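Support case: user asked for a sample of complex input and structure output to validate their parser. Sending the pair below.
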Amino acid sequence: MITTKELKHLAELSRIKLTETDKKSLVSEFDSILNYVNRLKKVKVSLDAGARVGAVRNITRSDDVINTNMKDRAQLLNEAPNREGDFIAVKKIIALE
Amino acid sequence: MNISNLTIQKAHDGLVKGEYTAAQLTQAYLDEIKKKNKDINAYLEVYEDALDAAESADEKIKAGKATLLTGIPCAIKDNILFKGKVASAASKILEKYHATYNATVISKLAREGVVFLGRTNMDEFAMGGSTENSAFGVTKNPHDLERVAGGSSGGSAAAVAMNGALFALGSDTGGSIRQPASFCGVVGLKPTYGAVSRSGLMAMGSSLDQIGPIGKTVADCEIVFNAIRGKDTKDGTTIGDDTYPKRRIGKIKTIIGVPKHFLKGDGIDKSVLANFNKSLDLFKGKGYEIKEIKLPNISYALMAYYIIMPAEVSSNMARFDGVKYGLHIGGKDGIDDYFETRRAGFGREVIRRILLGTYVLSSGYYDAYYNRANAVRRMITDDFLKAFEGVDIIATPTAPSPAFKIGEKTNDPVAMYLEDIFTVTANLTGLPAISIPCGFSKEGDKDLPIGLQLMARHGDEATLFEAGKEFLGEN
């Protein structure tokens, strides 16, 4: 039902490296899962009904800064795997093709 | 002190009467953990400062400022943030991550002087039904060490069952509090969606997730639920006391609805059905009315769930990029860092669900899967709301079988997913549901616990507590 090519595309969208063996087992697992959920296609539904989980509605608040604690800021930065001073370091993303 | 028959109320009485101190109580639990955890693996970490917290609780008690929960030792699932402590969600990608703030539930319990003993094992990011998906080893069932404790909150349920905590917090996206509670012979509550703040809970399926208590008695779960629930500005989906109408309990007979048509498949263990029917008789004997109900679309619930949940998972897991926090594995360039980090950090089931979620949300499949599943979700919710016009409770078994053997279902994802068949509906509909122990299944020389699931109207946890306490003879 799903091809290795499709799976490769999904893995690219998901930013996950897959090996050839991964792909093989995932294709068969996907088949059995999709086989199961595909039974939903038999249900008559009106697709514009939308979901509803109890009494949930949109709530807004004003866009104010409420936490400027320097200790919290330091702790947040401490969790970054790569840091340069007060910055989180990442690799250069502009390349010459 | 005998901790095996303690409840929160009894422990509280002992503390305020001065029969023991909170420090002694905490020490008794720490001793028990030391004895049992190496076999059961319920805890991933026991906090070194638990006794300090107990001493602060003792000061509060001495000052006459104790609440019911002051000095009560509890365990927390590893996906709930406790500031300064590691919170790993049992994943390699967060193995060394320290929470930078407290979850709302933690702040609320800390204010009451609860003693946090440690963090408990789980399926990685709460994805699974057996804790076999933990990156740090399976949690074993205290009733039979060859079997799973259930999941994903398996560590929390096992911690309570082995007397390693008086209560525990879990999270429930498709049954992750109720199924392990059923397997371990304890009580577990999945509150109404929005009753408890999700702020500081690592998101899995945001429209499905709820934090809830696991305890030895219904009364204990009620006490904890009342302490953690309530509106929170940090979670816009939280509800207030007046969001849903209240049902008057007492005078009028409580009616229990049973969807018999849904209990006929061969996937349900005989001992589970026998105990379920016995439980209904017990309720009848206590003056409850039992009524057969129809839930026309319920057989589609699990399929809809296994589309909606992975869709939400794939979005929520996008935040783990090896840049802001957690594991970082360097690749050949910036984008390759993501590929390497996520590959090394996520386990099989997490990867499977991210890919599946990406698939059902991708263009060309969105209407066929995600949109359709949402429409079915709405139909199922309407079915339940209609059924609740004629009944106050809907009863089913919690899980189709007692605890299964470790490794029995690891190679068949769909068999594992079928574990959730009775529990996912509460998450899809947002209804509250509780699992209470209702008997045992004899397997060789072991007695394996079985759970009974009761669901009620939105916001009506009170009816679940009332019925649960009567069922277990707690009143």
